[in-house]
Write a structure and sequence with these properties.
This protein has 16 helices and eight strands. By secondary structure, the chain is of the alpha/beta class. The chain starts with 21 loop residues before the first strand and ends with a helix.
């Protein structure tokens, strides 16, 4: 078996240790919110904008601890209008709430949607007069952001670990912004906050982390670090997700799933993403009912079929917990896909896009992918050349 080590370009430099948030990780980590708010207050912060969706911040149990802590330390206002696949309007509305009370920091409670909205609001509050569209579509430079505190309530987003944020206009595009200013200042990763995730969301968020790992390990920007992070993340996800589904309150399972998500998020912060995320962003732009992780799960088998022959050594090692018989040979793509599909069936991940799209939608989906500004960034990072025919074939196979 050939080793992926032999294919690493040792003359291409990469960032091994980037700027990162100060992350408190483990069961009980939420108790650290008092220390964080105290440090903020000592640094001159006298008002906090809280950003959440309408449900998760309470359902997770986080609010029972965070609200009393806020009341003890400083004034705060709450924007709870974040929706799944947040829009520019969500970001602008959150910033308007923060501007009205002269917020000096932004605190997010939730998954990727809440954290991305909070990141964007933190940027908007540091750039008076700007709207979300100025950064997402007009490429206004991000020169500052308010301090961001991210309290993660899922095991899939990765947003708490990286310098990216996503928002969209329904039916048009779902761009990404990137800046070192988008790294949260503090992150709380408390696995106890994930025990109330419904099974469908537990699966979707875990698949989001799985996709982060697979893409970061096979992108043109991959490194030994991102590959090793991906191997560990996939190993942990496959080992612990079934336990979390059978025993939702199992804190060990939630701990390792949240850890897997975090290291996969670090991996894609360094190694980037490619085909699956480029295509899923278009799916959820056209149909906001498509949860991000669910959309990725619908696409991944078809994406794997395309990329496996180009990166068999890496994918055989990363996918070993799912398909242990893989030897790292280009002709094994069908075997790899079959193993992934079988594992998806075991965890209850749907196998086709028919709940959201039909074959008649494929031409529009394909056109949007090829026009998307995100695709123009991500698709060149894929381990294969991605053209219209490849994108259309993936969508057709995913049906």
């Amino acid at each position: 078996m050939g080793s992926w080590h032999c294919k690493i370009d040792i003359h291409r430099t990469f960032v091994l240790q980037p700027t990162r948030p100060h992350t408190v990780f483990g069961v009980g980590a939420l108790a650290g919110i008092d220390d964080i708010l105290d440090k903020l207050r000592q640094g001159g912060c006298d008002a906090v904008l809280v950003v959440t969706d309408p449900l998760a911040y309470k359902a997770s149990g986080a609010w029972d601890t965070v609200r009393p802590a806020l009341d003890r330390h400083m004034p705060w206002e709450h924007y709870d209008g974040v929706r799944s696949n947040p829009t520019y309007a969500n970001c602008d509305a959150a910033a308007t709430t923060g501007r009205a009370m002269a917020a000096k920091a932004v605190l997010a409670i939730g998954g990727g949607s809440a954290i991305d909205t909070a990141k964007t609001a933190a940027v908007l509050l540091a750039h008076p007069g700007k709207k979300a569209v100025d950064f997402y579509e007009k490429h206004a430079p991000i020169t500052a952001a308010l301090p961001i505190i991210a309290i993660n309530t899922t095991h899939g987003t990765g947003s708490e670990c990286n310098a990216y944020a996503v928002a969209q206009t329904d039916g048009a595009d779902k761009p990404v912004i990137h800046s070192p200013h988008l790294y949260p200042t503090w992150v709380i990763e408390d696995p106890a906050l994930t025990v109330t995730l419904p099974a469908r969301q537990a699966v979707a968020t875990a698949i989001d982390a799985l996709s982060h790992a697979l893409e970061a390990a096979t992108a043109a920007t991959a490194s030994p670090y991102t590959i090793c992070l991906a191997k560990e993340a996939v190993c942990l996800i496959t080992a612990w997700l079934p336990t979390a589904l059978r025993q939702p309150g199992n804190l060990a399972a939630r701990y390792w799933l949240m850890y897997a998500s975090a290291i996969a998020g670090i991996g894609f912060d360094l190694g980037m993403l490619h085909i699956a995320h480029a295509l899923e962003h278009v799916m959820s732009t056209l149909n906001a009912d498509v949860a991000h992780g669910d959309g990725l799960g619908l696409l991944l088998p078809a994406v794997l079929a395309e990329i496996y022959p180009a990166a068999p050594e890496v994918l055989a090692e990363v996918l070993r917990p799912i398909a242990p018989e893989l030897k790292g040979l280009p002709g094994e793509a069908d075997r790899a896909v079959a193993g992934l599909r079988q594992w998806f069936a075991c965890i209850g991940q749907p196998s086709g896009m028919s709940a959201y799209f039909t074959g008649a939608d494929v031409p529009a989906l394909t056109r949007m992918v090829m026009k998307s500004c995100l695709s123009k960034t991500l698709l060149p990072l894929a381990p294969i050349r991605v053209d219209t025919a490849v994108v259309e074939r993936i969508f057709q196979q995913a049906l």
